[in-house]
Amino acid sequence: MHDNLIILAGGASSRMKKEVVLNNLTEEEIAQANERSKGLIGVGPNGRPLLDYLLLNAKKAGYKNIIIIIGEQGDLFKEFYGNQDKNNDFHGLNISFAVQYIPEGRVKPFGTADALFQAVAQYPEMNTQSYSACNSDNLYSTAALLALRETNSPNAFIGYDRDALDFPSERISRFAIAKLDKNNHLLDILEKPTADDLENYKDSEGKLRVSMNAFKFDGAMLYPYLKNCPVNPERDEKELPTVLLNTIKDNPNTALGIPFSEHVPDLTAKEDIAEVKEYLKKNYPELNWES
Known about the structure:
By secondary structure, the protein is an alpha/beta fold. The protein has helices at residues 27-35, 50-60, 75-81, 112-122, 142-150, 169-172, 219-227, 240-250, 273-283; strands at residues 4-8, 65-70, 88-90, 93-99, 130-135, 155-161, 177-180, 186-190, 209-218, 255-260.
């Protein structure tokens, strides 16, 4: 089992920064939403950020080495998790930082695949090892993170049962869905599925599976596809699902969809803050790093 987890936290958070009128947020929470990376918004009972809870679950799942990909203005991460570029000790986790630089001529980062490519360029040892990768603004369970460590498949992702995600149906309908074969190997990922597409994408259990960007990768196998990832013409970004699909074209049956049926708290927009706070209050009455 591998011990490496790369957390993507260098995005622009543009949806979080959109102006909305909400009466369930304090001025401080609104200010944090407008100014901080999403994973650093203080949603815990004691004002600690969401990323604390992801790191706690990662530690419980057995990860030891964490690389957090931050933006060029990401100094606040170092105030929370260690002021050195590499090898900070945070509750027994070894935390290092990679920086996602914005290419010249762009105003926003170049997407999730670019973030991971820049990270493995800064930590080339990852290209000879296996590692997991996930978002900083989702709270994946210990069980899901452990499943990524335990799988024997070179590449994998958590395939969440769409019906178990506790989001409004309109939001869920926009999630990309994965097509798996009878052995749960990935065949395709469909962005923006229509109602007519759904029946053809059900898995062997009759479930629709969506990815919430929780992956396991074989560093050596993935690297050439990461390096040569094309730009999504619609979003003008390089994206990890594209990398994974290009990998399995040349290496079939090397990406497993691990079936999971549970909710994944998500901090995408200001509207999510109160719900995530409530979820943490209910499910994490305290942050216990020793258990």
